[in-house]
Design goal:
Its cofactor is Mg(2+). One of its GO terms (molecular function) is GTP binding. Keywords: GTP-binding, Hydrolase, Lipoprotein, Nucleotide-binding, Prenylation. Belongs to the small GTPase superfamily. Rab family. This protein is of the alpha/beta class. It is about 30% helix and about 30% strand. It has 5 helices and 8 strands, in the order ββαββαβαβαββα. Strands 1, 2, 3, 4, 5, 6, 7 and 8 form an 8-stranded mixed β-sheet that branches. Helix 3 (about 105-120) links the parallel strand 5 (about 95-100) and strand 6.
């Protein structure tokens, strides 16, 4: 972490600490990884998102209290032919989000496989989150909330349900959308 003690041009104090980390998104093809990243970084949603080839790299900074959190985000391709190269992207990552489509039971089974791989091969200190995407499509839900929650509990993972199109995020104990917007308005401009 780096410390700074400067003021922004509007007189508001700037974050005094900077924390930079690498985040990788993993999961099957078409579960919404790219849509989630695009919504987080640019505030955009495209109903028909092209498949990622290999991996995409984006960055985003968010201010939390007196800390600026700079994220280097690697959005990996979910197609099986790219699976062997995924370790290049999660190597050295401090955090990983494994995404599954809550309307497709098979993607939760595959997400569990990604979690096991991360636990075996990634850094022992990596923080892993399990994200059930498409939470806004509750009527089509196939991967039950309870099963995903149990997987997260059994593996000491953070767990959230999200929807890139409605920017809805629910997680255990934290309202990420409210916190992010509140803190962003307090100290950051992008």
């Amino acid at each position: 972490m780096t410390s700074k003690s400067t003021a922004r041009s509007n007189g508001q104090p700037q974050a005094s600490k900077i924390c930079q980390f690498k985040l990788v998104l993993l999961g099957e093809s078409a579960v919404g990884k790219s849509s989630l990243v695009l919504r987080f970084v640019k505030g955009q949603f495209h109903e028909y998102q092209e498949s990622t080839i290999g991996a995409a790299f984006l960055t985003q900074s968010v201010c939390l209290d007196d800390t600026t959190v700079k994220s280097e985000i690697w959005d990996t391709a979910g197609q099986e032919r790219y699976h062997s190269s995924a370790s290049v992207y999660y190597s050295g990552a401090q955090a990983a989000t494994v995404v599954h489509d809550s309307t497709n039971q098979e993607t939760l089974a595959r997400a569990k496989t990604w979690v096991k791989e991360l636990q075996r091969q990634a850094s022992p200190s990596i923080v892993i989150a399990l994200a059930g995407n498409e939470a806004g499509l509750a009527s089509k839900r196939m991967a039950e909330y309870e099963e995903a929650q149990a997987c997260a509990d059994d593996n000491s993972l953070l767990f959230m349900e999200t929807s890139a199109d409605s920017y809805e995020r629910r997680s255990r104990g934290v309202d990420l959308h409210e916190q992010s917007q509140q803190n962003k308005s307090q100290c950051c401009s992008t």
